[in-house]
Amino acid sequence: MDPGTMAEVRAVLARQDGVASWSQLRAAGLQRHHLDRMLRRRELVRVHPRVYADHSGPLTWSQRAWAAVLHAEPAALCLDSAEPQADRSAVIHVAVAAERRWRHRPGYGSTAWPASGISCAGRPVRRA
After folding, report:
1. By the 8 A CB rule, do 95 and 120 touch?
2. What is the extent of the structural domain holding 101?
3. Is the full-model pTM beyond 0.85?
């Protein structure tokens, strides 16, 4: 992998607290065989299907939030999770586009929003 690609990959991870989706990594120039090698070396670990973190330890709340939004995209944090002082021990709430099929995962809640707007239980939605 050329140094420019690795710099782009690192930039994507740095912007999102060490979490990125496969489509973002691919847009940064990463090829599938590079991803496979990084997974074997544990430079990246799979968090959800097509979502990766840059370490193998426990994820922080912020990393869990990024992973949830990237996995369910188009999606955004909602309810208490969208608040700046969200309870970091609580379930992460994600507003998911109504047309998106998304499997619920332990520790994550989801709410579908209509195509006409983005809101979650009448509250504004903030993207992670």
Report:
1. yes
2. 75-124
3. no
